[in-house]
Amino acid sequence: MKKLGTLALLLAIVLTSCKEGKNTNYLPTSIGAINSMVVVIDNELWKSKVGDTIRKHFAAPVLGMPMDEPLFSIDQIAPKFFTGSIRSTRSILYVMKDSVNLAHVKSDMYATPQKVGVIKGTTDGEIIDNLEIESDKIIAAFKDMEIAEAQTRFNRSLNKEGVLQEKFGISLKVPSIYKVGKQEDNFVWIDREIQKGTANIIVYEMPENSFSNDSTLVQDIIAMRDSIGEKYIPGPDMTGKVTYMRTEPAYAPAVFPEEIAGLKGVEVRGIWDIKNYPMAGPFVTYILNDKANNRKLVLEGFVFAPATEKRDDIFELEAILKTLKFTSQTK
Question: Is omega for the bond preceding 257 within 30 degrees of 0, making it cis?
Answer without folding.
Answer: no
